[in-house]
Amino acid sequence: MSATRYRRFLKLCEEWPRDETKIGRDLGTYLRQRVASAFREGENTQISDPEKCDQMYESLARINGNVYRQRFPRAKDTSFTGVTAEECKLLLSGNMQQTDEDKKGLWTTLMERFSSKPAEDAPEKSTEK
C-alpha cells in the first residue's frame, strides 16, 4: 500500500506547477523536497500514520485541482486594495528592483521619518511668551 501512496505523491509532484520567479520560496519545490524526505526509501517506505498521509494527499490534490477556486468563484479579480492578481504576482515574485528606500529596512525608515528635523531644515520657533 505504501507503494501506491508513493506513486500518487510522485504524480502530484509532477502536476504541481513550479514558479521560477520564487526561488527558495516556491511551494512546488518545497512539496517535492518534503515528499523526497518523507519517502526516503521510495516504494519501500513504511508510513507510521497512513490515514494522515492519505488526508494530506487529498488536501494537496484539492488545492492543485483548484477545487476551492471553482467552488467559491471571485466576483472580481482584484483584492480590497484594488491590486490585480498579476500585479500581486509581480510584487511577490521578488524580481522587482529594490530601491534604496526599500533596502534601508523598516526601523531605519521609521526613525528617519519621525525623528526631529535638523535645525537648518526646521522652522524657527518663537521663544516669546
Automatic annotation (TrEMBL):
Record localization: Mitochondrion matrix, Mitochondrion nucleoid
Gene: LOC114464051
An annotated GO BP: mitochondrial respiratory chain complex III assembly
Signal peptide per UniProt: none
Cellular-component GO terms for this entry: mitochondrial nucleoid
The keyword Transit peptide is annotated on this UniProt entry: yes
Species of provenance: Gouania willdenowi
Protein's name according to its UniProt entry: Mitochondrial nucleoid factor 1
Keywords: Mitochondrion, Mitochondrion nucleoid, Transit peptide
Major subcellular site: mitochondrion
Superkingdom of the source species: Eukaryota
Pfam families xrefs: UQCC2_CBP6
